[in-house]
Design brief:
The chain is mainly α. The protein has 16 helices and 3 strands. The longest helix is centred in the last third of the chain and has 32 residues.
């Protein structure tokens, strides 16, 4: 087999095996009747469609664009879709030949990760997978058993909670539909982040040692670890992705709360219960896994991104806030996320 360049990271993983392993070891969803499950699936599909208009009205984005249907899945179906998306995102493409031992081992590891995540994902907008109905880039996925499990745990009104979840996920669809450049921006940074630098183990150790001895200030937590482990170019790409994720999640939470009172009668109860769930203590194993796969970093994205969006919108209004979607240069910088006035002064 001939190649025109280095093998992309996605091609080094047996994604078919990952999906198979993930489905095999994933925990079953909550016990429910087929009637209840079918009714929930139908209501989620309807809620996703109903959420589109109020989200567009609040954001001022995607006016006049078509409204694709959501894809409503169980845990096993989400695992298969996620494996396909991750392969596309990491440049896997179609498999060529029989996967080697390393690819199979990586596939088993990826399958375990997907199995763990399959019990935590309520919904997801995937910009890297084609919609099965239209063929256009992007598909909105809702994971029925997880939504049922959480609404039972929180003891909230199911129909209200389902619409509330859809408001957040539909906002992501609107973000990408109205700003197609976001998909390419993500792919470019992911490619740079996952690029094989050819750095040897010894060179990596020397670079980390030099960084530690330099005394230069570093970020805390996951960001600080990435700052040490990655080349400067990779860390810049990682930072851009983190800032984009912080904006996308925070903006979606802002829109969810802006739309909620008019659309979801029990929104205050749901928000209070859901925020308490997000921050509740975890057992040690869960804390380690969450940290390793970045779920705690994602929680910080919701909080910091929403505070940023809340302040900017309160100061200049949503119409002027939407300048943020103009292109990479108007994305918030790390020093601006916690000081929104700096973004306003630079961009507006």
């Amino acid at each position: 087999m001939s190649t025109d360049g280095p093998t992309p990271p996605g091609a080094r993983i047996d994604w078919s095996l990952a999906a198979s392993v993930g489905r095999r070891v994933a925990r079953p969803g909550p016990i429910t009747t087929s009637y209840t499950l079918d009714a929930a699936r139908a209501e989620l599909a309807a809620s996703a469609a109903a959420a589109e208009a109020p989200v567009r009205a609040v954001t001022g984005l995607a006016d006049g664009l078509p409204v694709p249907a959501a894809t409503v899945l169980d845990r096993g179906e989400w695992i298969g879709a996620a494996a396909q998306s991750m392969s596309a995102m990491l440049g896997g493409g179609e498999p060529v030949g029989k996967p080697g031992i390393a690819g199979r081992i990586s596939g088993i590891q990826a399958g375990g990760l997907l199995a763990f995540m399959s019990g935590a994902i309520l919904g997801q907008y995937d910009p890297f997978t084609a919609d099965p109905q239209t063929g256009a880039d992007g598909v909105l996925m809702l994971v029925t058993p997880n939504i049922i499990a959480v609404e039972r745990s929180l003891k909230v009104v199911p129909s209200d909670f389902r619409l509330w979840v859809c408001l957040h996920e539909v906002t992501h669809r609107v973000q990408f539909s109205a700003n197609p450049w976001l998909r390419g921006y993500m792919l470019d940074n992911i490619a740079q982040l996952s690029e094989d630098t050819g750095e040897s183990g010894a060179e990596l150790v020397n670079r980390i040692s030099s960084a530690l001895r330099s005394g230069k200030p570093r970020e805390k937590g996951v960001m600080g670890a990435m700052q040490l482990l990655q080349t400067p170019e990779q860390y810049e790409a990682f930072t851009r992705l983190m800032m984009l994720g912080t904006l996308l999640e925070g903006h979606a939470d802002h829109v969810m709360d802006a739309v909620g009172p008019a659309q979801v009668p029990t929104v205050e109860t749901i928000r209070a219960a859901f925020d308490a769930r997000r921050t509740r203590p975890q057992n040690p194993v869960q804390r380690i896994i969450r940290s390793l796969i970045g779920m705690d970093a994602k929680l910080a994205q919701y909080i910091r991104g929403k505070a940023f969006t809340d302040e900017v919108v309160a100061t200049v209004g949503m119409t002027r806030f939407n300048a943020i979607w103009s292109g990479p240069d108007t994305m918030p910088r790390p020093e601006e996320i916690d000081e929104p006035r700096r973004w306003i002064d630079r961009v507006l």
